[in-house]
Amino acid sequence: MLALNDSASLGAMTRYTRREFGQVTLAAVPAALLLREAFPEARVPAEINSKIKNVQIGAITYSFNSIAQNPDDIIKAYVSIGLGEMELMSNHCEALAGAPARGGGRGTQTPEQVAAAKAFTDWRTSATEATFAPVLKKITDAGISLQLLCYNMSDSMTDDLIEYGFMMAKALKVKTMTTSTTVSMAKRVVPFAEKYKINVAFHGHDNLSDPNQFAKPESFVAAMAMSKYFMVNLDIGHFTSAGFDAVAFIKEHHARITNLHVKDKHNPANGGQNVAWGQGDTPIKEVLNLMSKEKYPFPANIEYEYRDPDGAVAGVGKCFKFIKDALA
Fold first, then answer.
1. 323 burial class (0-12, 13-18, 19+ CB within 10 angstroms)?
2. Could you tell me whether strands 145-150 and 85-89 are parallel, antiparallel, or unpaired per DSSP bridges?
């Protein structure tokens, strides 16, 4: 139902007949967005519902790197596919907030590259919570729920840049920051997580040769022991390609999991590479049905990494259809 603030909104509708207006289906996102534009003073419920059988389905914006030259196209992709939950990469957040191109690069830098890198650093230094407020509004106005900021932290990152990431997360009003980082870096992050009271969820890969990497189950367990704010962003594809059982880990640690990354990969015996969904060894269907049965509250986010011949938007759409079929 369209909830109106005052009679002016009703007056704005006079160009529609009662029958015509009644034919507008607010459950359809594009129609709701059109109504929002037509009646800006009205409270139009335009949220995209992508929860299927108790499982909240979303995607990380990394999935749309190939169209990120215009970050607004990423938001449009969520709407066109019908994904109502977003995990926002920090570089995409900065682009949406108007950051200049990062510049820089490896090797000898041209004067233009040096100038571009300085402009980006200056922009970051001057950024405040107000810088990122329009990003949150743009995403929520599209009917998308922003629950997670992905801010990766290298061992060489300064404390100022760690704090910058938490400031960004606070501005976006997310409860959790996901990150690809190391066990040693996690120790440095403890005071920031406790200061901001924001969860930090560690994303794993499949590098088993380096004990400082998040790959083995015990590395996640060690991090969770460091702080009550430390959680797990379990990538079930990488977990499979590292040779571990994602279903068993989720059952044991579901209370400390903030979200999943869903992709299909082969296990080590089969090469561990990314493949089109349904062709690998990742127990995607088993994980989704476990989430549905147990009503786990964390989202299953598509992380599109194989290369679909029809492009990223179509590829993510195919992944979403795979999930729908798995939960049918």
1. buried
2. parallel
The span from the CA of 228 to the CA of 318, in Å, is 37
Q: Give the three-class secondary structure for 55.
A: strand
Round to whole Å and give the CA distance between 69 and 76: 13
Indicate the pTM of the whole model. Answer: 0.86
DSSP, residue by residue, 172-209: HT-SEEEE--BHHHHHHHHHHHHHHT-EEEEEP----S
Token code pair at residue 171: 């501005």
Query: According to the model, what pLDDT value does residue 14 have?
Result: 32
What is the location of CATH 3.20.20.150 in the chain? 47-326
pLDDT tens, 190-243? 999 999 999 999 999 999 999 999 999 999 999 999 999 999 999 999 999 999
Number of Cβ within a 10 Å radius of residue 39: 18
Helix 246-253 and helix 217-224, axial crossing angle in degrees, nearest 10: 20
Backbone φ and ψ for 177, nearest 5 degrees, come out as -110, 125
CA Rg, the chain, in Å?
21
- State which amino acid sits at residue 124: R
Q: What are phi and psi of 30, to 5 degrees?
A: -60, -40
pLDDT in tens, 31-70: 445 545 554 444 444 699 999 999 999 999 999 999 999 9
Topology (CATH level 3) of domain 47-326: TIM Barrel (3.20.20)
Take residue 206 and report the two structure tokens written for it.
């499949």
Task: Please give the Cα distance from 56 to 257 (Å, whole number).
Answer: 14
Distance CA 90, CA 93 (A): 5
